Amino acid sequence: MSDTPPPLPPEETTPPPLDALPVVVEEEEGLGQKRSKRTFWQKFGGEGLVASVAIHVVLVLIAAFLIISVTKESAKKDPNAFATGSGGGAAGERAKQFKTRLQPKNPKTTAKTPTRITSKSSTATIALPDLPSVAVSSLNAGLMGGGASKGFGGGSGGGIGSGMGVGRGNGKNFVSLFGAKIGANGLVGTFYDLKQTTSKAPTECAPQSGIPAYRAAVREFFDSGWSPGRLAKYYRAPEPLIAGQLFIPSRSANAAPEAYGVEKEVKPSRWVVHYKGVVEVPQSLPFRFVGSGDDWMLVRWDRKIALDDGYERFLVGGDGKYKDFNNQVSGRDFVIDRSPGHLDRLKAGPWITATKGTKVPIEIAIGETPGGVFDVYLAIEVARSGSRVNGTFEGEGTLKLFRVNADPLPKEIENPGRKLTIDMQAEGWIFKTVTGPSLSR
Predict the structure, then answer these.
(1) Which residue has the higher pLDDT, 25 or 371?
(2) Which residues of 360-381 are buried (b: 16+ CB within 10 A; e: fewer)?
(3) Rounded Cα gap, residues 262 and 312, in angstroms
(4) How far apart are CA 114 and CA 408, in angstroms?
(5) Where is pLDDT greater, at 389 or 234?
């Protein structure tokens, strides 16, 4: 017998519970990695929101660019936009365009009725005053819309160009007794200084001993048929003046250079002002010019000398005959109340007949010889209807101011004095300036 014990029967094993088994994560075939868990931002859809916002931002930027481009283009083409700086202002050559548009104004609210100077009677008994004590510079205070301004703005860029506007800058757009710079209808007056050339070199008329040379140069101008070419070598004021009448009470001879803005270049002696234009005859009744000048004045009507009077005469001699009007002799004097040493009367020229509505060229020349005091007066006398006797006429005995427009008169001649009877309004006898025949021969 063997001492070896018999083998024991195999023990029955009890299977472990299911929750004790390990969890086996199976790998998906072909992925080669584990499936990751999704975050809250991903579950919320954050990636899509970011993409949407980015797309909208791009669209907004594109829209803004298009709006700005269209706005700039409209501003360039908008005729109602106004610019600044085009004449040396803030933006140089490329003026800034403002979106503010000019609002049209009601013309009824902006139009002003000009003050009409009238008197209670058709004629007024007036005389010429003595030399006023007011400084000549104060006579130039009547500025026409602008004065010392430079148009519609200043040097900072506002306005049109460098200041050429209503006012024309530098305070020289005034109405003087010698005329206005702009904005008026009338006779165009050109100022000449015979003491210097166009280059400001002295001429033979410059010294006090040059008065005979001055008179000779003036006579040469008249003998040439009043040709401006005869005065072309002399200094001329840069701008003309436009006069509605020539009625200048006594004042300094420097008033003319000051009115033309050349008082710094011209001494107040041996100057000439030549006015010219074309006027329409207002009535068919005969009339004649009445006036005088210190130192001289001539009137050329339809290329005929119709008045030559003053301390000096150039074309009418002591006999007073006007050869262009059948040798008519100067008419009677109209006495004015003046102190000694000044003009004390106005002289009447020959009678003139013209049909109402006729357009006639007219020229007026005035001048000062030695300097000192200057004055000039020009009026008309109308003939009585049916008064012609022995080839001549009888005048009304009163005067009308010679006028070529109906603009308000300068204050200096509203009421010139006491004795001389002048109708300053001259209603019905205004020789309006028009376009017409040439002044040349």
Answers:
(1) 371
(2) bbbbbbbbbbebebbbbbbbbb
(3) 25
(4) 8
(5) 234
Neighbour tally for 357: CB within 10 Å: 11
> Which residues make Cβ contacts (< 8 Å) with residue 211, sequence separation at least 6?
205, 270, 369, 370
Q: Which two tokens stand for residue 354?
A: 């013209």
Amino acid at the residue 5 = P
Half-sphere CA count of 84, side-chain side, radius 13 A: 12
Residue 178 has pLDDT above 90, yes or no: yes
pLDDT tens-digit series, residues 376-433: 999 999 998 877 766 688 999 889 999 999 999 888 886 655 456 789 999 999 999 9
Q: What DSSP element (H or E) covers 290?
A: strand 287-294
> Would you call 79 helix, strand, or coil by DSSP?
coil
What does the angle CA 322 – CA 323 – CA 325 come to, to the nearest 5 degrees?
A: 75
What is residue 270's three-state secondary structure?
coil
The pLDDT value given to residue 392: 81
In 63-135, the DSSP E strands lie at 81-84, 96-101, 124-125
- Cβ pair 193, 271 in contact under 8 A: yes
Of 247, 192, 198, 196, nearest in space to 221 by CA: 192
What H or E segment, with its residue span, contains residue 188?
strand 187-197
Report yes or no: 398 and 244 within 8 Å, Cβ to Cβ. Answer: no
Tokens of 381: 């006398």
Residue 411 φ/ψ region, left for φ over 0, alpha for ψ in the -120 to 50 degree band, beta for the rest: alpha
- Reading the block at residue 229, the tokens are 């070419």
Consecutive H or E run containing 377? strand 373-382
Nearest to 367 by CA among 376, 359, 356: 376
Alpha carbons 187 and 230: distance in angstroms, whole number: 20
d(CA 239, CA 246): 18
CB 357 within 8 A of CB 283: no
Q: If you average pLDDT over residues 175-186, what whole number do you get?
A: 86
pLDDT of residue 265: 96
- Going by C-alpha positions, the residue among 288, 373, 379 that lies closest to residue 338 is 373
Flag the least confident range among 30-34, 206-210, 272-276, 313-317: 30-34
Q: Residues 384-415, buried b or exposed e (16+ Cβ, 10 A)?
A: eeeeeeeeebebbebbbbbbbbebebbebbee
- Looking at the whole model, is its pTM more than 0.90? no
